[in-house]
């Protein structure tokens, strides 16, 4: 890491937070290569790429899976919120997740074409911009810059388990506000939304929901961006109204009916994809627009999601 990036991070996040996050990434990389305490996770077992690809070829499904991976769907989700000001009626959030922009150039081009067709008020991104969970970020950030040029409205983002904290200066130079256990207010006329975002809670355990919720009140709807939906209980406890996330890919390779063969073990099935509820908390888990390990999707098409906010009667 260059001294310039570290200096930018320390200025943006403070020396302690920056150094702790960088150290956790270094420890993760050590585990991937066997330098630290070894662990297995399919995202880090990159020979799994050949195993999965060859299995799909034997089943005559590989080419279809690749075609599916660029067939990005536009999903619509209506969300009724208490205390939503009438001037925020029909306020729309374009939700992008798990893009893995340096994984498949065709899929990235398909994503750029898809977002051009959508009208929205703000865009929110819930992490995983890079294909691997370690290594260089330049290719992913170059692709992100091309995508950002297609997004004409304000963009807010959080980091995922595939993302490096060193992306923050690059993303913010593009005009993407990264929420690292932070919050901001979104205003339209007299209406206000409380938008918060947490750092990765999956690999790096760098999330701090109470800090992200600092200043939230019951009179203003609170929206939390998290890469993983696994934090749903904590989000509900502090009083968020809505949790937007991704991470699971909806399984990516599923049985007929969209039943995932594998779904992240940190997440119960009911928060695995699409809209869900937990007590008073509403949530939506995007299956993402990209792919991980292999650039195929089976019975689980990629998506971008347009959330429309509605005043609750």
Automatic annotation (TrEMBL):
| Domain of life (superkingdom) | Bacteria
Q: Which InterPro entries match?
A: Calcineurin-like_PHP, Metallo-depent_PP-like, Metallophosphoesterase_sf
GO MF entry, a single one: metal ion binding
Q: Where is the Calcineurin-like phosphoesterase domain?
A: 92-250
Q: Which Pfam families does the UniProt entry name for this protein?
A: Metallophos
Which controlled-vocabulary keywords does the entry list? Hydrolase, Metal-binding
Plastid: is it a keyword of this entry? no
Query: Which GO BP terms sit in this record?
Result: lipid A biosynthetic process
Q: Specify whether Hydrolase is a keyword of the entry.
A: yes
- Under the cellular component aspect of Gene Ontology, which terms does the record hold? membrane
PANTHER family noted in UniProt: PHOSPHODIESTERASE YAEI, TRANSMEMBRANE PROTEIN WITH METALLOPHOSPHOESTERASE DOMAIN-RELATED
Question: Can you say what this protein is called?
Answer: Metallophosphoesterase
Natural source organism? Psychromonas ingrahamii (strain DSM 17664 / CCUG 51855 / 37)
